[in-house]
Amino acid sequence: MVKFLLMFVSVLAANLLSNLLTAFVLGRMRSEFPPAVATALAMLVLVVFLMPLFAYLDSWAGALSKFLLRTGKKMLGRTIGLFVVFVALLALLYYGYARLWFGWDAFTAFFGNRF
Prior knowledge:
Number of helices: 4
Strand content: under 5%
Structural class: mainly alpha
Radius of gyration: 18 Å
């Protein structure tokens, strides 16, 4: 179960990072290169970024799951600690996707200016 939750969050995080990287790279290259060159360079940057990420994702997920289980077990118990960490990571990803796709600040929309 732990590995599934971490893979779930990892896939979303990798996709969010690749979308942010693509937007950044293409934003810079559109004005400097023709579309054919900008597309090829953006694809190359994505492969260089994502290849090591996916190559080490399983080992990172295993190490991270052990760390989170030990930490969560000490603070809230194994199951509740894992659930709290998963929900927190999912909330951060939700914020990132809402900001990327819609330019929407989910934190302010949900909590206002209370913080």
